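so my prof wants the structure for this chain in the tokens format not the other one, which i didnt know existed until like an hour ago. anyway here's the sequence
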Amino acid sequence: MDAEEIMEQWSQTLGAGPLLLIAAGAIALILVLVIVFKLHAFLTLVLVSLLTAFVTGIPVAALVSSLVGAFGGTLGSVALLIALGAMLGKLIEHSGGARVLSEKMVSVFGEKRAPLGLGLASLAFGFPIFFDAGLVVMLPIIFAVARRLGNNVLLYGLPAATAFSVMHVFVPPHPGPVAATELYEANIGLVLLVAIILAFPIWYLTGYLWGIFVGRRVILPVPALFGNVDDDVQVNPPSVGTVVGILLLPLVLIFLNTGLDFLDTAGVVDDSETWVQVLMSLGTAPVALLISVLVALVVLGHRRGENGTALEKIVDSALGPVASVILITGAGGMFGGVLRLSGIGDALSDVLGDLGVPVILAAWLIAVVLRVAQGSATVALVTAAGLMAPAVTTGGYSELQVVAITLATAAGSVFASHVNDSGFWLVGRLMGMDVKTTLKTWTVQQTLQSVVGFLFTLAVFAIF
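here's what i got, hopefully its the right format
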């Protein structure tokens, strides 16, 4: 009997109380080991994942396979994006493209409004592209602007990271809101319209203003993920249009995939046709980034006189700094996977579902609990929507009220990103933050985003 069959036959016998205590203890142990004992985050997450699996009673015969599966499942979606994004970023940085584009952005928006410009660009890029892919594509520009204007990464990085988070959590065609829309039987056009309208004020309040507030109080130098600008001799730098074109290429390809998927759903095209499958494959995030790296090698490398060996060293040098980020992100996914397999999220959501609170508040609270318990925003959103769907679809709500409930659930799913969320480690490590600083900045930001987003959706629910 393999591990998957063992897990299918196994059922959790612990109640919500013990499971909640185990989850709280595991999270506390991670914080103590990382902050107090300075144990490496990768080792800490693997160790605590193993201990949590033992304590929650996951069958020993399936334990290691379950841990490796959760680790690999996270890396499968993240490692390629981070590695290819780092290569692309290194090529842009080495060629002088990041500096050229950062100077242009500063001249357009001004030094004081540079965080606003980066955030608005990230909101636009975040419509078709996933959070992690968008962030790694924008990082070289963020770092270049930050180096030029005071060498403080949070002041420029937090508004941009929040923009990608807001778009990923609230706005179709991202998978979480699309799945919730289907479960609640909401009108996807209305969900898209309302989400886009709400995205800017949510980002402005919880990303831009919070990023400015934190960035002026927590001064962190720009990490050398792509090397330091001054390390490379940058002759014949590319034009702003060339850099923008290379940055837009993966976004255009990904948006092509999204558009074809929408047309297939509408019956305009058939995804069984070969040409549709080929174009959709080109628009998947890893393939889109791979194509962009290859184009960058030609445009930013060969055409500028770089030879093959030099280019190989440039892209190879991008992988070392992100190796730790990849492993820690995978281990964070492992810990979240253990919490999901143990049934902690299910037990807590069942308790909340029986409290008899208003539907929109219950949907938000259940998503909050699932998010805090197991880490994944998408899992929290889809699971909470699945639990609340019967009450929503039979509740006699107006179309806009159903939209509000959908987006309220989305708001709950982003609450308090912490050590069981792979995104927590991704943002923290890419921006050079330790765990304590990430908790004070990113975790608080995600909590604000959740609460403010819920208040906006509650207003829509009450008015319509």
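also thought this was worth mentioning. The chain has a mean pLDDT of 84.
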